[in-house]
Design brief:
Length: 279
Amino acid sequence: MSVPKLLARGLAGLMFAQALMGIVLSEQYRDAEPIRAMWIGNDWVTLVLAVPLLLAGVVHADRGSTRGLLVSLGMVAYAIYNYAFYVFGAALNAFFPLYVLLLVLAIATFIHALSRLDVALVARSFTRSTPVRAIGTCLAFIGVKLAAVWMAMWAGYVFADLPTPVAPEVFKIVAALDLSLMVPALTAGGILLWRRVPWGYVIASFASIQGTVYLLVLSVNSVIAIRRGFATAPGELPIWGTLALLATIITIVLLTNVEDETATQPHVHESSVHAGPVL
């Protein structure tokens, strides 16, 4: 049970190429300077963190590691979100065909991986002591908090003439992607995990991994905005930094409660996972 190796490795290679070209050929970005800086921040996180994590996850998943499988799923989910952001949010530039190819490849990889996923086996790979209710509550909190932040900024702009942190058009893209993709995944994953539904272990894992990396991107971009004078300190860093730290802790706790040896021993802990809610 693993992600499709050829698709995942091809995705990682194209992600590396796109991020490197974005950094080296940054003049190709045709957005305003604050937005251009944001793309470069995204590219750095993709280059130094997302690509290595994806490749490491694929290697370990191929060896039968459930933890590696979940990491690779999380990073493919990150790629879907990230390149939807580039496709719909970046000004038309020389990299546009690459963005589209990456988005399509990421979606295909994710669908292929889920289509052959043994959800019950993944759920049984978690220890009985996994704090599912605490983690589920925290994930749902992050989802609700993320939605509240974006809606508060939207309401301030529409009803109080307050400025958005970036250009309104870009803000709309980011908020729309979060509210339609990330918030539902975090919230649903948290609720299903809290109820010990097998799919909850899968959704909570890839959503927390993807969310951690994405919130790190927002934190990095907040620092860049402050350093380049686009925002006044502390800017949005306390919001994104706090959520990123919480998501990181959740991810670490989840992954450390995975017993990879159960990939070849599906009977272990079978009684600890319920097919429905715990009453």
